[in-house]
Amino acid sequence: MADNIMENSAWVEENGSGFDFKYYGRRYLKLWPLLTIGLVICLSYTYYYVSYELKPLYKSLAKVRLSNENYAGGTASMGFLSESGTKMATEEEIFRSSYLMQQLVIKKRLNIFWYLKGRLKEEEIFNAPMQLFVDKPADSMKSVSFTVVPLSNEAFELEYLEGEEEIVRQIRFGDSFSLPRGDHYVLTPKESLSAGLKYKIAINSVWATAGQFGNNFSALVPKGTSTMQLFINSPVPEKGAYILNQLIEEYIYQDSRDKGRIADSTIKFIDNRILKVNEELTELEGTIQGYMQERGLANLQAQSGMLLSNQNVYTQQLISLENRLSLIKELKSNLSSGQVQRFVPGVLLEEDGGFANLSHQYNDLLLQRERSLLAYKPDHPNILNIDKQLEEVRQNILEYLNNTENRLIVNRRDIQATVNRLAGDVRQVPKERSELLNMERRQQLAQEMYLFLLQRREEVAVANSARGTSIRIIEPARGGANISKKPDSFWTMAFIIAFLIPAGKIAAEELLNNKVRTRKDITKRTTAPVIAEISHKEEDYTLIDFAGKRSALAEQFRSLRTDLAFMLTAEGAKVVMLTSGMPGEGKSFTALNLAHILAYAGKKVLLMEFDLRRPKLSEHFNQRKQQQGITNYIVDRSLNLAQLAYPVPHMDGLDYIGSGPVPPNPSELIVNDRTRQLMEEAKANYDMVVIDTPPIGLVTDAQLLNHYADATLYMVRANHSPLDLLKLIDELYQSGKLRNMALVFNDVKQEDGGYYGYYGYGYGYYGETEKKRKKSWFKKNQG
């Protein structure tokens, strides 16, 4: 029979494996009041949010094309679509930078927000019918908000809070007014105003406004293209498009300004050189004029022209070399100063291709560094990499200039030797005339340098005025697409959350639960068979009426009686012991009604209360503590069973023997030989013997008595027995310490998914009226 019970238990476990939809469905339906409350709260809040708090959101789009043009002043543009992915990523980050957005907010005063106020909702507007003037720049404005109510085209009401008090003032349009924590303002109408409408004006800080716009801005460079897509989300589509277009304009301005810095740096360098050369020319002209007047050499050129004609060609070459050496010396001085932030004017040595390429590369990296600093910090790897490249190019330029200078010095020495040789032909010229010729040659050298610098300055200025930009607008922003979440999604979410509340409660209970709740909890943790399930008892009674209507509890005990017969198939097997792991699991209740149902079947049954420590059955039968029982039998050898057995009233065939006085040493009494004599006498005089014992998880009494038992029923109570106690049950079953052991699952409610629950309302067929079933269902759902 035990094998049959094991097979039945295995069948139940196998077919109940996985998620038990029926069990959790019953638990969920029981929480319908919580579901109703959740629906009311979630749907009410959703209605309020959708009606008054949900703001529309529009996405504006603009497209620009990135090109690779040259910077003014001869340097190559660093470009926005170069072969380097790092440069492209840098330009994208510049568009995202807070600096660019902050400059736009300051210039366009976008930190002033306008709202049209309703009774419960306020809506942002862009083209307000009034214009607010503030006596400070945008980045100096104080954060403040106030309400304006036009009374006519001539005056308006100003409303604001001063502490906890609301202040209302009437002011004429065009008059200056101030706020306690604000600045001085002037409000003028731009069009005819509607009286009574309320407008809220909020002035935020530039940094907060730029951050707000930046969080709603995004840039995208599609792979394999030279275009960049710019997006911004705004509650007002016209404002979003305006911000996007103005951001592009600000970017173009910053880009053009950066390009012009090279030309400005070159012009500044040339102007400094021109000043020095001009001072030298002025000084030489005065010296020559005074020298000639003092010595009467006014016709020197005519007198010495024939003699010096052979020197003119070499003199011009020498002047050119001197000019280039002077410029190289100045360039080396700038680069050797260690200031990497200074541009190199490559146009000054434009005929030297090597130097022009190096200067272009250096200026390109320098601009790239400055633009990258808009998006990255100085210690960012991208910036550090650019600094490393700048230093390498700077060293290359210095090395190139040194080599060029050495080569030019050699050339100058050769030409100077030729000039000195030709000078021998003019030795007949008087000393005064020779000195004058040297001064005139120095004057000619300065004049050549002066003209050269003026020419280069003009070229740079022309190129700077004609410079272009590296970005071209393909598609300006216009309006925007509505990307707001649809109200339907909020209603759907409200229903989902409401329905998840009961599910969350169930999940929390499961997570925090440490009690046995269902039959599956038992079958997953022990291989011991479950012989029967006893349903929850709503009424407060101990003894079941088996002779009256056939209730579910009565049928369950009849089923237990039948299954018990299959466990006691051995010859002479008639002793059934009931135990549990802890108090309160229903041993005494089950032992009493099991003995009752056995006697109801016509058997002579003895119910023995061997719980010598905390007897419960004695309280049910109203036995006095001094009445004799088992302890008296063990101690007094003159007593026999017939003297102690107590016939249970109105229960034919059922006798009861109580525990007697509570002894100080129950375990020692149980191992007494008189206990064996008592059990033998009981088996000889009764058809069935039912023993109620103490919990096995607390004391050893049950294990000592199990020696006399032919079958052991171990009680497990739903929502009472700890899950950890099932480990002890499995150990007892596997070790065989309890003979012919099976489990009885007690106090199982319909919603706990017990074995009897699989039969639905089947037990209600036996004698229960329709009226009572309806009442029980209502009562159960109220609990």
What does this structure look like?
The chain is an alpha/beta fold and 783 residues long. A hairpin with a 4-residue loop joins strand 2 (112-117) and strand 3. Mean pLDDT is 78; it is low at 1-17, 69-85, 425-429 and 755-783.
What's the helix and strand layout?
Elements (H helix, E strand, L loop, with lengths): L1 H14 L5 H10 L1 H22 L4 E9 L18 H12 L1 H11 L3 E6 L4 E4 L4 E5 L9 E7 L4 E8 L2 E8 L3 E3 L5 E6 L8 E6 L2 H10 L1 E4 L6 E8 L2 H59 L4 H9 L3 H25 L16 H20 L8 H43 L7 H35 L5 E5 L5 E2 L4 H26 L6 H7 L4 E6 L16 H16 L7 E6 L6 H14 L4 E5 L7 H4 L9 H6 L5 H4 L1 E2 L6 E4 L8 H5 L2 H13 L2 E5 L8 H5 L5 E7 L7 H11 L5 E8 L21 H13 L1
Parallel strand pairs: 15-22, 16-20, 16-21, 17-19, 17-20, 21-22
Antiparallel strand pairs: 1-12, 1-13, 1-14, 2-3, 2-10, 4-9, 5-6, 5-10, 6-7, 8-9, 11-12, 18-19
Number of distinct helices: 24
| Radius of gyration over C-alpha positions, nearest whole angstrom | 53 Å
Q: Largest beta sheet, briefly?
A: 8 strands, mixed
How does the helix and strand content classify structurally?
A: alpha/beta
CA distance, first residue to last residue:
39 Å
The poorly predicted ranges are 1-17, 69-85, 425-429, 755-783
Would you tell me the overall average pLDDT? 78
Tell me the helix content: 40-55%
Q: Please give the number of β-strands.
A: 22
Query: What shape does the CA trace take?
Result: elongated
Give the strand order, joined by hyphens, for the main sheet: 15-22-21-16-20-17-19-18
| Range of strand content | 15-25%
